[in-house]
Design a protein that fits this description.
By secondary structure, this protein is an alpha/beta fold. 49% of the residues lie in helices and 14% in strands. The structure holds phosphoenolpyruvate and magnesium ion.
Length: 546
């Protein structure tokens, strides 16, 4: 491959990296990589590749068992079974006997098997297509004899390329191995993008399909320009390296500036104080939140504790995580957002039936008010942890004061149950509501009477106000170019909660948009909560505001 290919997407974080591409879900390479031999030779090559692939799978299974767990390791058992599947293998052999190279024979067989599985209309079997593609790609790689290259690829950090990643896949990635992220689909406010941003690595979404033929090739990822240059030529590499050096120099200077604002209070020139809080999804982010000057945790996306498991976490497990975060934050506010599952955050063990419009469906507070035991387990864990610091509770996806009242009744039940068991908690624990539906903003005057604070989830508030799916790259421009209606709703909610003596924050991705900081200050927002890498930038910007 000599010519470079440039893929264009939307840069969702900053930075420039150079490295090898690794596909998350390997598809079969489109082109056979070897010269066709005679039938006997091809059959021998196939046999060797099968043995090597089998060894490789055993090693992967062992690793998955020790690092991920039994359930995750099962996938490799399926791959091992496929390698032994008589129909699959004899179909490949048949193609070789018909005159095809081993690679072509695997490609043809994988394609026809994939189509056959898809046609059966069974969701489980259709999902096995990925396994067929995965195992076929491995066979082809071992036919190429590039095992050592692959070993090297696996140990060195790489640029991860994926069709799409679900939030649960993203949380299980080994962050230290990933130089950058590229997904064919996705949008800036999808949860995968939010996680990538929190990891502080360059990332690109919405590139459209990238052929898996590029797996293992060198690439240049430029998140500022929104480009991925695959198999770059010498000239492109030199230009990129020059830009990268300049970028790193500016980034270093910027870092110095950011460090200088670290201990300055975030107060506008007219004296309006804005609290700068961090959005986190796990305990592991607390240390960096503190070292970047977070005055509190404005959004703990508690569902990520559920996403990384394969069964419901117990009250004890939840309690110990909330308690540890509260202790580490040393009396600073920690806002635990109760479970926001559903829409793009699906968890298999929740068994949520498939829905036509999941983001308009069974999610967040709707699930919690329906599955009350699940909700109460979480509420009790939060209450118990509240003794160890300053914890607040926040309810997601609220559309009415009635949902808040129902939640408060359950919270009271939890408090009473804990008291009878002699368990203590902060009796003055604050309760807040996310303003992330137009209904909540419109009814904010009424809802404000029920709570201590609001926090605006602009990601969802934008999608519901503009009727533009946050997961759909085709309508990203609508979300990006129409802040005005969302700002008007934020103003409405701000005035309502202030009249009642409460406070309001913004915790959606808009809070990190420095082009909007002045508007938030003018509206009178009291807190901005952003991913850790954006904390200092927002702090600096607030002090420049009027
Ligand atoms: C939001 O909707 O803006 C928000 C903060 O919640 P999430 O992104 O987790 O849906
Ligand atoms: Mg939301």
């Amino acid at each position: 491959m000599t010519e470079s290919t440039v893929f264009k997407g939307i840069g969702i974080s900053n930075g420039k990296v150079r490295g090898r591409i690794k596909f998350y879900n390997k598809e079969v390479r489109a082109q056979p990589s070897s010269v066709k031999g005679n039938k006997k030779q091809e059959l021998e090559r196939l046999d060797r590749a099968r043995k090597m692939a089998s060894e490789h799978i055993k090693a992967l299974e062992k690793r998955a068992l020790s690092t991920l767990g039994e359930k995750e390791a099962q996938i490799f058992e399926i791959h091992a079974m496929l390698l032994e599947d008589e129909d699959f293998i004899s179909s490949i052999i048949g193609e070789i006997n018909g005159g095809k190279s081993a690679e072509e024979a695997i490609n043809i067989t994988a394609k026809s098997y994939g189509e056959m599985l898809a046609a059966l209309g069974d969701e489980y079997l259709a999902a096995r297509q990925t396994d067929i593609h995965d195992i076929s790609a491995q066979l082809i790689r071992f036919l190429g004899g590039d095992v050592s290259v692959n070993k090297e690829k696996d140990t060195k950090p790489y640029i991860l390329v994926a069709t799409d990643l679900t939030p649960s896949e993203t949380v299980q990635l080994e962050a230290s191995k990933i130089l950058g992220f590229v997904t064919f689909g996705g949008t800036p406010s999808s949860h995968t993008a939010i996680l990538a941003r929190a990891m502080g690595i360059p990332a690109l979404v919405g590139t459209g399909k990238i052929d898996s033929i590029y797996d293992g090739e060198e690439a240049l990822l430029n998140a500022e320009k929104g480009t991925l240059t695959v198999t770059p030529d010498e000239k492109e590499i030199q230009a990129f390296e020059k830009e990268r050096q300049e970028y790193n120099k500016i980034a270093k200077e910027h870092e110095l500036y950011l460090r200088s604002v670290m201990n300055k209070p975030a107060v506008t020139r007219s004296g309006h104080k804005i609290m700068i809080y961090a959005n986190i999804g796990s305990e592991s982010e607390v240390a960096s939140a503190i070292s970047n000057g977070a005055e509190g945790i404005g959004l703990l996306r508690s569902e990520f504790l559920y996403l990384s498991k394969d069964d419901y976490p117990s009250q004890e497990e939840l309690f110990s995580v909330y308690r540890d975060i509260a202790i580490k934050m040393q009396g600073k506010r920690v806002i635990v957002r109760t479970l926001d599952i559903g829409a793009d955050k699906q968890i298999p063990y929740f068994d949520i039936p498939k829905e036509e419009n999941p983001s308009l469906g069974y999610r967040a507070i709707r699930i919690c008010l329906d599955r009350q035991e699940l909700f109460k387990t979480q509420l009790k864990a939060i209450l118990r942890a509240s003794k160890f610091g300053r914890i607040s509770i926040m309810l997601p996806m609220v559309v009415s004061a009635d949902e808040v009242k129902q939640s408060k009744a359950l919270l009271e039940e939890c408090k009473a149950e804990l008291l009878t068991r002699g368990e203590g908690f902060d009796s003055k624990i604050e309760l807040g509501v996310m303003i992330e539906t137009p209904a909540a903003a419109i009814m904010s005057e009424v809802i404000a009477k029920e709570v201590d604070f609001f926090s605006v989830g602009t990601n969802d508030l934008t999608q519901y106000t503009l009727a533009a799916d946050r997961q759909n790259p085709r309508v990203t421009h609508i979300c990006d170019n129409n802040a005005e209606p969302v700002m008007r709703l934020i103003k409405m909610a701000t005035d309502a909660i202030h009249r009642k003596g409460g406070w309001i924050g913004v915790c959606g991705e808009m809070a990190a948009d420095l082009g909007l900081t002045q508007q938030f200050a003018t509206i009178g927002v009291d807190e901005l909560s952003v991913s850790v890498p954006y904390l200092l930038g927002v702090r600096g910007k607030v002090s420049e505001c009027r």
